[in-house]
């Protein structure tokens, strides 16, 4: 009794604020693209060849609102930021043609793919390094009618006011339409999905007390602070 038809309390649905609207954007799934800027691929020891994109997911409840403080993640001593442009979808499907892909985009935002760098790789699944609690800080979604479709623009992250990542969205290896089209070959994309599109070079560690600010031209900034480790 008291759970509206469920045997336990229903989990709270994840959502993001929308610039200029009282209504919020409901988040269905979180998709991420790995190794999608040449300079970042090279700084991680990889080749700049145009290999097929690497896709992975984060749990929907890993969303963190801008202005929040997140705990220093468990099971890591090398907690990293990765600033990314976020696409928010209003529709979807399977096998979406590239020339129709952007028709499915509701808007754009700024996100950070927080990563347990010291346990990433070595043949282990990426989920344990990428898909944990509070691993997906996201700023407000700016509707396309306000931002236009983003093909270029500065993408920058500062830590305590010091610039750590500074690049341009135009340097994506796989473009936004290509990402949507390729991802839809593996999954049926739907309204409410968000896609983190990859990080530029300059990724690095954070410590308790750090303040991260992510900006992308034309979008609302994202601010997040790193708190104490979970006890």
TrEMBL record:
The keyword Glycoprotein does not apply. The keyword Oxidoreductase does not apply. It comes from Georhizobium profundi. Keywords: Hydrolase, Metal-binding. SUPFAM superfamilies: FAH (SSF56529). Pfam families: FAA_hydrolase (PF01557). It comes from the Bacteria. This is FAA hydrolase family protein.
């Amino acid at each position: 009794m008291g759970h509206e038809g469920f045997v336990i309390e229903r989990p709270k649905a994840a959502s993001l604020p929308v610039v200029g609207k009282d209504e919020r954007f409901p988040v269905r799934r979180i998709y991420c693209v790995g190794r999608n800027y040449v300079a970042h691929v090279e700084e991680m020891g990889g080749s700049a060849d145009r290999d097929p994109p690497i896709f992975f997911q984060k749990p929907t409840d890993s969303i963190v609102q801008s202005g929040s403080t997140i705990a220093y993640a468990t099971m890591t001593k090398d907690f990293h930021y990765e600033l990314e442009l976020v696409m928010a979808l209003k529709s979807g499907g399977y096998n979406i043609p590239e020339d129709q892909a952007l028709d499915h985009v509701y808007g754009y935002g700024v996100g950070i793919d927080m990563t347990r760098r010291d346990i990433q790789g070595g043949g282990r699944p990426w989920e344990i390094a990428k898909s944990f609690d509070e691993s997906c800080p996201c700023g407000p979604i700016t509707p396309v009618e306000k931002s236009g479709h983003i093909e270029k623009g500065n993408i920058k992250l500062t830590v305590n006011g010091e610039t750590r990542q500074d690049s341009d969205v135009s340097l994506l290896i796989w473009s936004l339409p290509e990402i949507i089209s390729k991802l839809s070959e593996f999954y049926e994309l739907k309204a409410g999905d968000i896609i983190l599109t990859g990080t530029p070079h300059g990724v690095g560690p954070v410590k308790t007390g750090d303040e991260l600010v992510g900006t992308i031209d034309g979008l609302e900034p994202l601010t997040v602070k790193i708190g104490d480790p979970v006890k």
